[in-house]
Amino acid sequence: MRKFIVGMALASTALASPALARDDSWYIEGDVGGVMIEDMENLVSPGFGILNTGVGYDAGGVVGYDFGGFRLEAEASYRTANADGFNISPASTLSGANLDGRASALSFMMNGLLDFGDDDGLQGYVGGGAGIGRVKVRAASPSLTYVDDSDSGFAWQVIAGLRHPVSSNVDVGLKYRMYNQQNVGLVSPRGAALDTDFRSHSLMLTLGYNFGGEEAAPP
User: Fold this and answer.
1) Does 215 reside within a domain?
2) In contact, 49 and 147? CB cutoff 8 Å
């Protein structure tokens, strides 16, 4: 009986997958994917000057530290999209060859993330961040520039994602990010003050490298 119990314990240890000792370690990550920017309003006068954009791209990188169940990271990212249409007034819209337009935001954020799941399997996470962003907007016709300016200010974001290890150090994953920068103050070429908001939704592939990815010793 005693030999049987010892044998079962050894068998269960052999069948168990090794846990990855990633707690209390640094990591880096690169993100790239698509972005949708919500319509930006008040770019000509209150109620008019609505900029519509198509699908653009979002790219960035993070340096973080895994405390075990909670991660803290510094992030730099850039998202941009070309304009599809610019509503000057209810009866006038620029598009196609008549429109030279783009919206973008460069940001530097601090994020806090909560992890769910085992380090050696599929893991989910949610969190958010805050920092500073610089929004740039351009909308022009062949004969007239309506807005071509940028502004820096406070920004915040919400993050959710999935990741899975492919080796003891490397993770791949999928991340959703909603970026928000309100009260973007711009100035038109004629000197008019314009106030708008920038909000985007990104879906990105992630590739991470963890510097503490050795296998943990079995219990």
Assistant:
1) no
2) yes
120-176 pLDDT, tens digit each: 889 999 999 999 999 999 999 999 999 999 999 999 999 999 999 999 899 999 999
- State the CATH number of the domain containing residue 139: 2.40.160.20
CA nearest neighbour of 184 among 171, 173, 199: 199
Residue 3 covered by a domain = no
The answer to whether residue 15 is domain-embedded is: no
pLDDT digits (tens, 9 = 90+) for 195-207: 999 999 999 999 9
Tell me whether residue 216 is in a domain: no
Query: How many domains, in total, are found in the chain?
Result: 1
Of the pLDDT bands very low, low, confident and very high (cuts 50, 70, 90), residue 63 is very high
Q: Is residue 83 scored above 60 in pLDDT?
A: yes
CB 132 within 8 A of CB 153: yes
The whole domain housing 43 covers 25-210
Per-position DSSP letters for the chain, written without gaps between them: -HHHHHHHHHHHHHHSPPPB--SSEEEEEEEEEEEEEPPB--SSSTT--EEEE-EEEEEEEEEEEE-SSEEEEEEEEEEEEEEEEEEEETTEEEEGGG-EEEEEEEEEEEEEEEEES-TTS-EEEEEEEEEEEEEEEEEE-SS-EEEEEEEEEEEEEEEEEEEEESSSSEEEEEEEEEEEEEEEEEE-TT--EEEEEEEEEEEEEEEEEETT-SBPPP-
